[in-house]
Design brief:
single chain, globular, disordered C terminus
Length: about 425
């Protein structure tokens, strides 16, 4: 293991995104969510719009963005040497579940009072099993996907809750987060955690990650996420170099040519790895090569913030709203699908205001519980035994003294605070 410092003993620099890059990526996420609404409007209302693959392209954008952003976030956590797996996991759980839980409750209520038809794929998508399966993000679980090819598991195979079809991608993304966190903090940084809790997390997450490398609803969304992570690593390696913008501008050109070529031969399948790679070249090539300032940047940031702020809530809830409006047969002066689109954005804005925007408070609230579950049993005993605490403090003091004499660029160079008996083993 290497410490989170450079060869000269200085703390490794954080990976930062410029204002233009951050604003553009926010805008991409917000627009992708709005385009998913259009794609599902076409399906729900059976409209003759030529956008059959649009929803798939948008899902690819979400996973590319997630891979890049989570990779750079993990890299910064490791370089700081201060974050722990429990802290990372608390942030991810809060980000995913803060709006997901109320949307899932809304889906149940909508199905009970407003929705009569069956929406979604074959399997269990209503009732208690479907609710808890979706609540714990075990819907479309790989073991059932694989088993369904050989035996009849449909009476037990939990799918996304009725009319909340987009939840299948949320489950994949969350378990990818868990795998990424386990790898970064336990494998790379060698942080010590409760092995039983970590084993349970890995046992649930790894099947999802592995299966979605080559199969699943998106035909390899784990691999798509890793492509995004690779571009995050590329940015971390090249940021600040004088030729970096020219390099990423070149990737933009190659990606645009690749996508155009696949469109010409009509083989541009949204979920193919080749298409995802070309899209990543376009997306990140543009984001990392363009730099605007002044009024243009101000306007871009405002527009990007507006579209991205409630984009996750919009992605979660829009299909429920579309189905409710479709089945209600409301007579209006405008086409019902227009009303449905407007209603989806309004409901999503309310969910964002009431729930999603508070995810950082939720993360702070659940951190102690996660830290307790993930801390090693020996440390739990130490925290309740003053004599053991004193002994471990003495051992830690001896260790720090030895490190200070042997490695001037080691843990103490980070200036990170330690708790009694806690080794700081983070950083690359």
């Amino acid at each position: 293991m290497t410490d989170a410092v450079t060869a000269g003993g200085r703390p490794a620099p954080r990976v930062r995104l410029g204002e233009t890059t951050s604003a553009f990526l926010d805008l991409a996420r917000g627009l992708a969510a709005s385009l998913v609404v259009l794609a599902h409007t076409r399906l729900v209302f059976d409209l003759p719009w030529p956008i059959q693959e649009l929803g798939g392209y948008c899902v690819v954008v979400f996973f590319l963005l997630s891979g890049m952003l989570i990779f750079t976030s993990l890299l910064n956590h490791l370089r700081s040497g201060e974050e722990r797996f429990a802290d990372f996991l608390a942030d991810r759980i809060a980000r995913i579940f803060t709006p997901l839980v109320p949307v899932l409750v809304l889906a149940v209520l909508a199905n009970f009072f407003l929705i009569d038809g069956r929406w979604g794929q074959r399997g269990v998508n209503e009732g208690v099993a479907a609710f808890f399966g979706n609540l714990f993000l075990l819907n479309d679980y790989p073991l059932f996907q694989a088993a369904s090819k050989f035996v009849n598991v449909w009476p037990y195979y939990v799918r996304s809750y009725n009319a909340a079809e987009p939840l299948w991608t949320v489950a994949i993304e969350f378990w990818i987060y868990v795998v990424a966190g386990l790898f970064a903090f336990l494998v790379v940084a060698r942080q010590r955690v409760n092995w039983l809790t970590a084993a349970i997390a890995a046992g649930l997450a790894l099947p999802v990650f592995v299966w979605n490398l080559f199969a699943g609803g998106g035909s390899g969304l784990s691999l798509t996420w890793m492509i995004g992570a690779a571009f995050g690593a590329l940015w971390a390696a090249m940021a600040g170099r004088e030729y970096s913008r020219r390099f990423f501008a070149s990737l933009l050109v190659v990606g645009a040519l690749g996508v155009a070529g696949k469109m010409l031969d009509k083989s541009n399948l949204a979920y193919s790895t080749q298409t995802a790679t070309f899209m990543a070249m376009m997306l990140f090539g543009f984001a990392f090569s363009v730099d605007i300032k002044g009024v243009s940047l101000f306007v871009l940031k405002k527009v990007a913030h507006f579209f991205s702020s409630y984009s996750y809530s919009l992605y979660l809830v829009h299909n429920i709203v579309l189905v409710v409006v479709f089945e209600s047969k409301i007579a209006t002066l405008v086409p019902s699908y227009v009303l449905a689109i407007i209603a989806a954005h309004l409901v999503a804005s309310v969910i964002y205001f009431l729930f999603e925007r508070h995810h950082k408070k939720v993360s702070k609230a659940i951190r102690p519980a996660l830290q307790y579950l993930l801390q090693r049993p020996a440390r739990k005993f130490a925290e309740t035994a003053p004599g053991a605490i004193g002994a471990m403090e003495a051992l830690d003091e001896n260790r720090n003294t030895a490190l200070a004499g042997a490695d001037p660029g080691g843990d103490d160079a980070l200036g990170a605070a330690r708790r009694p008996g806690e080794r700081l083993e983070a950083g690359i």
